[in-house]
Amino acid sequence: MKLQNRSIREFLRLEIMGITFTSAFLLLTFYIFTDSGTLALYGLLLNITFFAWGIFFLKFFQKKLSEFTNSLCRTLDDMISGSERSFTDLEAETSFARISHRLERLYNIMQINRNKAEKEKAELQSLLSDISHQTKTPISNLKMINDTLLARRMTEEKQREFLQAAGSQLDKLDFLIQAMVKTSRLETGVITLEKKIVPFADTLTAALNGVLAPLEKKQIILLVDCPEHLAFSHDRRWTAEALYNILDNAVKYTPAYGSISVNVQEWEMYIKIVIADTGRGIPEKEQAAIFRRFYREEAVHDVDGIGIGLFLSREIITMQGGYILVTSDVGNGSAFSVFLPRK
Fold it and tell me: How far apart (Å, rounded) are the C-alpha atoms in residues 146 and 177?
């Protein structure tokens, strides 16, 4: 049998036998050449001492090796099962400790990746549940409209009304899908924000252009106060998207002939954008929840929307190192303060 195929126990047994025969041969040779029994006896005692210390060292080494292999096996078992465990604190200077330390790092990395995968799985399940809930109503309405058009005879004017209703539901589905695509692409890192020093007036104008039509329709007064030459580092496209979502909410929940103001202030570390309206306001208990995906107050279900605009706005602002605060008084309107870092 080759030496590399033998177990450690067999190798140690062979080593002890080899040392014993070598010592006996050397002592016999020494006695023959010196013819001194006393010196041979001292040599025997010295060999026995070395032999005893050798046995002690080998036993200690075998014990440490056994502890390490047991710890290694437990660690590998825990890695496979994904359970938490505490690692054996071996001496910091030993080779076993270095291996154990690297194994612990590998284990922690695997745990982080496993937890991340579980979190992403839970978020995906939540997202699918939200999408299913949000699409259920417009799809049901479209089926009902389609069945009615197929089953009933009606005038051309009535058919037009049903088709317009179907178009409204399709617009809602399209808006939902577009919003979900934007959100998922931001969250998964498919889209990265590119911050550049650009005039903020252009960004704000792009956001305001999206709400001019509903503003005019409801005859809402718009007041804008923005420094003309203000420029700082931000992503123009996505910042405009975030501000548009807040403005769109303000227009939706502000009654006709109300007012909306946009005030941009230069602070030392931040640019503060305050969007205030004279709408119905948000109850204090609801203010922390309005930034959740698909969240909508029970009292505003009569207003078109799916509850994703503010969630998307917060994601965009947070990714740029900023934050959003909201203050509101029921019946007297709300104010959303957006803070973006100047650098």
Answer: 21
